Amino acid sequence: MHKEPHGSILDIGCGTGLLKDFLRGDFHYTGVDVANNMLDYALLRGYTVKHKSFEEAIPEISYSSYDFVFALGCLLFIEDIHSTLRHINRIARQGIILSLDQLTQEYINKFKVRVYDHSTVIIPEAKEDYFIRGWTSPTIGMTINTRIIYIPSSKTNDEGESL
After folding, report:
1. pTM score, whole prediction
2. Rounded to whole angstroms, how far apart are CA atoms 132 and 134?
3. Which of 158, 159, 133 lies closest to 146, judged by CA?
4. Strand ordering across the sheet containing 92-102
5. In this predicted model, what pLDDT tens digit does every residue of 120-136 receive, in sequence order?
6. Homologous superfamily of 6-152 in CATH?
7. pLDDT digit string, tens, across residues 7-23
8. What is the C-alpha to C-alpha distance for residues 76 and 82, in angstroms, rounded to an integer?
9. Domain boundaries, the chain
């Protein structure tokens, strides 16, 4: 018998909540984003939403408060990636899936807001870590490679069992 996955998901940079359309299972979704108009769509998809910047929202979230944390296509806007990754690891009970975009200097120079290339950050606890052809910028027209990373939680309960 196959057990349907379930739990809670924190979707950092959730945008319209599209992640919910791609995952099977019974999950409660919470999304964080600065784009209020996109959060309206996430609400329609059943998300609980937080209208805040990542830097503002993530430190406020309690230890081990979500089963899974997703940060897809949003970490390029974060300057202090190491602090953000520590917070994400603190928040996740079971696992983390994130993407780090490999930005060229040309892309960084052309983009209208400040963005950062974190594609070479070392994440020793990553179980899976690989590059894919990620996405093409609709405003600049450049193709960006993306590093997809899965980090299982290293948290344990009082009996030493993995959560």
Report:
1. 0.90
2. 5
3. 133
4. 48-51, 26-33, 6-12, 66-71, 92-102, 143-152, 128-136
5. 999 999 999 999 988 89
6. Vaccinia Virus protein VP39 (3.40.50.150)
7. 999 999 999 999 999 99
8. 12
9. 6-152
